[in-house]
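Section 5: illustrative case.
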């Protein structure tokens, strides 16, 4: 089944009993955050500044405040809660967020075991910020200020879409 929409080709594919829709020409990025959404909103803002509308940014918040903050930074779409993350994790090309999005019960319990499993099990490439907010120290990763880490995210996304500076 082929669908034409706004000059892009959407292809529906049935794989192992699941239906997936792929939009060619647009990289779909899920930015996942919780609590107040401050980190996620900074990531969305930089994605928009760097790539404009050439990427589709989906704001997935563990709560409404986080989703709202990311939407204010110009995400294309937003959704909140467990089912939003379970539904969308397998449907995007990239997942970006803090390391805690793959840790059950992280973010003061906002991130459920099901959410962490959905993110970790997704075939999407994951770009995670190694912040030690959850009492986990990642050895071999140099500590840098958050703005420097976000610039590294932008560089990784640029490489993913083949856009060089």
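Designed sequence:
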């Amino acid at each position: 089944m082929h669908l034409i929409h706004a000059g892009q080709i959407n292809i529906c594919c049935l794989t192992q009993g699941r239906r997936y829709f792929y939009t060619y020409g647009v990289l779909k990025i899920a930015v996942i955050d919780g609590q107040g959404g401050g980190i996620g909103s900074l990531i969305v803002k930089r994605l928009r500044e760097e790539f404009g509308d050439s990427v589709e940014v989906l704001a997935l918040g563990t709560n409404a405040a986080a989703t709202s903050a990311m939407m204010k930074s110009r995400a294309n779409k937003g959704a909140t809660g467990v089912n939003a993350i379970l539904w969308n994790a397998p449907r995007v090309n990239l997942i970006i967020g803090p390391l805690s999005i793959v840790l059950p019960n992280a973010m003061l319990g906002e991130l459920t075991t099901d959410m962490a499993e959905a993110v970790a099990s997704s075939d999407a490439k994951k770009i995670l910020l190694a912040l030690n907010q959850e009492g986990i120290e990642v050895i071999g990763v140099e500590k840098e200020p958050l703005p420097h880490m976000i610039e590294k995210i932008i560089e990784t996304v640029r490489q993913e879409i083949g856009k060089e500076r």
